[in-house]
Design goal:
Elements: H1 4-15, E1 19-22, H2 27-39, E2 43-45, E3 52-54, E4 68-70, H3 75-78, E5 83-84, H4 87-98, E6 106-114, E7 123-129, H5 132-141, E8 143-144, H6 146-154, E9 158-163, E10 185-189, E11 194-198, H7 203-206, H8 209-225, E12 228-230, E13 233-238, E14 244-250, H9 257-261, E15 271-276, E16 280-284, E17 290-293, E18 298-302, H10 312-317, E19 323-325, E20 328-329, E21 335-336, E22 368-372, E23 389-397, E24 407-409, H11 413-421, E25 424-426, E26 438-440, H12 453-461, E27 471-475, H13 494-505, E28 512-514, E29 517-519, H14 537-551, H15 560-572
Parallel strand pairs: 1-6, 3-19, 4-5, 4-10, 7-9, 9-11, 14-23, 23-27
Antiparallel strand pairs: 2-3, 6-7, 6-8, 10-11, 12-16, 13-14, 13-15, 16-17, 17-23, 18-22, 19-22, 20-21, 24-27, 25-26, 28-29
Amino acid sequence: MADPKKWVAEMATLLQPENIVWIEGGEEEHQQILDALVKAGIAIPLDRPKSYLFQSDPRDVARVEEKTFICSPTKEEAGPTNHWMAAEEMKKHLLQLFKGAMKGRTLYVIPYSMGPIDSPFSKLGIQLTDSLYVVAHMAIMTRVGREVLKKIEQKSFVPCVHSVGVPQGHPDFDSKWPCNPEKLIVAHFTKEREIWSFGSGYGGNALLGKKCLALRIASVLARDEGWLAEHMLIVGITNPHGEKRYFLGAFPSACGKTNLAMITPNIPGWKAETVGDDIAWIRPGKDGWLYAVNPEAGFFGVAPGTSEKSNPKAMATIATNTLFTNVALTGDKNVYWEGMDIEPKPPVTTWLGKPWDGKEKAAQPNARFTAPVAQSPHVDPAWEAEEGVPISGILFGGRRSDRIPLVTEAKSWAQGVLYAASISSEMTAAAAGTIGKLRHDPFAMLPFCGYNMGDYFQHWLSFQNLPHLPKIYLVNWFRKGADGKYLWPGFSDNTRVLKWIFERTQGKSEGINTPIGILPKKGEIDGAVDEILTYDPEGWKEEVKELKHYFTLFGHHFPQALSNELESLVTKI
């Protein structure tokens, strides 16, 4: 059991901060932090209750995957989809980077819990940071403070070291958004269970409880301890008879995951409630069901595209007590972004702090809102249940303009794992890269799996003997017709797909048995045109051919069971 205070003292010797402040938690402290950010000119108070706007350096707006490393004992353990560096070599590099990195700055010590503080399934961490912006956001996204520290002193914790990398003497020391993107690096030591991040003050690069602990480190813990740490939403659906079931959904970032987590049903009598919008930790229960918990305490959602039409629940959630990053500022001190479906009051100032001429983007495409889960008017009553909620079905999907039908039910757990491993999606602004380019993103975990993904697929297969397995579905809201227009309206109309899935898990909807899985019968999903409910055999043969080529990437780590599923598809299509 590590001594947290001794560790902090040792790190302070390396970092050389001017001051050290331990975060104790609570609303009063959080408001003091926000007031300090306003005084420093970093946060802009908005004319909506307890809400503030931040504008980052234009060089620091997204996850930078090529500078994110898994430092496992061997390169093979990290696998072909991760950037790897030997732990000893990386630590040597980091110690040079971090030496004196906080000169002239304050070192904030954030004891935090992923999951309810008293839950036996939660994981504890301590993040060191010199960014007050990070402190404010960690206080929303996790449980922080004195009570967490008490737990840490009894148990153990994941050490997390973060610096924006701009010490006293650096030319950008007085910047309102200090960052050092040229030296940016995010390193995960999977054997030591440590996280070190340098040079960025943004999102998952800097909020180390989020993607770093809750997915990359947690996925390794899950492998070793017999559970799953996943990039998934959790939503509770209740039918008109009062029957309730919970579902998971895995989609690459900015592909509608938050919208589905907060869906507003447009079918009379149906109700949806949010457990989580981004991360699920899943464990087998004693009764043979899989149970999922949301380890986060906040939403860190993509703002552009969010509107009263696309996600009224999100709009209600962020009406108050919300931090906005890289959205535009309106003349009445409110916020605006593309796809908001309102007319902003002029003058509008873009996220770059310039007058908006209506031509360039007012908001950065990856602009975010950060708000507590608990303040959502549609949060599920069981969202903090220590044992989690029982899962009836799991949805996987990405942005695909062709080939993939609206919804397909896998015939077996192994086929479902194959489809999850086969996810590919047109890239979005949530990660650095070419917008619109199709890339493989297995389980929507490509940037987040902390070990060899071939072994990760096998870990999923290891659950196939549970007596109450969820059904697995491949979904695609983004298929287009010959005219280039979407064939499915999406948003609230996705309730019609959820209804079919709900009833399939009850054994009610009949469906059609096809070589690729169970598809809805004509008329089982209102408003779905025939084209979106069918599959093209020739297109799928090409899909399988491409998948077989892609999976060679994993060599002997690719499970034989999935190879068998692929061969079976070839013979049946």
